[in-house]
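Exam revision sheet. Question 4 asks you to relate a sequence to its structure. Input first:
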Amino acid sequence: MSFALDGVRVLELARFQAGPRGGMLLSDLGAEVIKIERLGGEETRQHPPLVRGQSVYFSVYNRGKKSVCIDLRHGEGKKLFAELVKKSDIVLENFRPGVMKAMGFDYERLRALNPGIILISVSGFGQYGPYIDRPAFDPLGQAMSGLMALTGQPVGQPVGTASSVVDRYTALHATIGALAALRHRDRTGEGQVVDVCLLDSALTMVEIPTSYYLATGAEGGEGGRPPYRAKDGWVVISAAGRDMAAGLMRLVSGADGSVTDATPMPSSTAADRRRALVEAWCVDHTVEEICEALLEAGIPVAPVRAIPEVANDPHLWQREMLVKMEDAVAGEMYVPGVTIKLSRTPGRVGPVPTPGQHTDEVLGAVLGLDHAAIQKLRADGVVA
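Answer key, structure tokens:
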């Protein structure tokens, strides 16, 4: 079977989530992603939660990659990496700005080794700007972009998301940048730097209220979206269009004919009154009754589910978004499936590598080293 990114080789120098998830997406689409780990493996291999000794965190973001353990502080290790750069298309890294240069592998050095190389740099605040030297993780992006304040509006205090949504957005931008850079190289033969960061990505999630503020000096545009309580749970209702809003009001107002405004819920001057009507109606009905009535009326509605319900959703299983696979450490693991569905070149979900599992394979097949040479490197503590 052929894949969309057949023939593309990625060297991944990335840890935690935003960088590795970008590498995962490229692997899903068919690229050969070689994860360069320190001897013994990346630290997130021990990141909780664990299933029978295997990190779910590491498994989710690193399945389908090849693991090569090289000591990049060792002179011989640097030489091996330089040789791999010559035979690769992309280097993906998520160190703080300046670390690649300190290692001896900034973009100018990479380009000297391979003029067509594409460097994807994933960081907290980008490769330039006043915050360039600051460390960052997902919650900082949520906080500094204003996303946390918007999410917390219904409860009156900032609230971060339970999952690392900014990391995931950044991984998507890294992948899109990689594909655009590959397209440019196809036309010109030139590589380039792809610079993506957490704060930039987080800003894309608050772009409407930010643009509105800059134009008017007022806050608004988007706010919190609290769910509605039902008899036996919670539901989310998204009556975003005029017809949907009018239909919802007809459904919940009953004999109350005073609510006739068809302006979408979030932007109505009567928003409080309208929400109170919906709240009063929902609390008298079950989740199933609410969903059945609103879906029949063509109004978007969904139950607020707990993870056990999500994990057993037949729709997700049918779309292969939840996948069980054999695992060398845990015996078996569940990982997310391929999100981007391509009709002619469907993606793939590969197994989770053990530390250095593919060291001999890569050094032999890609660099042409024989068994004796690899054994000497291992004996010298260069590879594992």
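Marking note for examiners. The radius of gyration is 25 Å.
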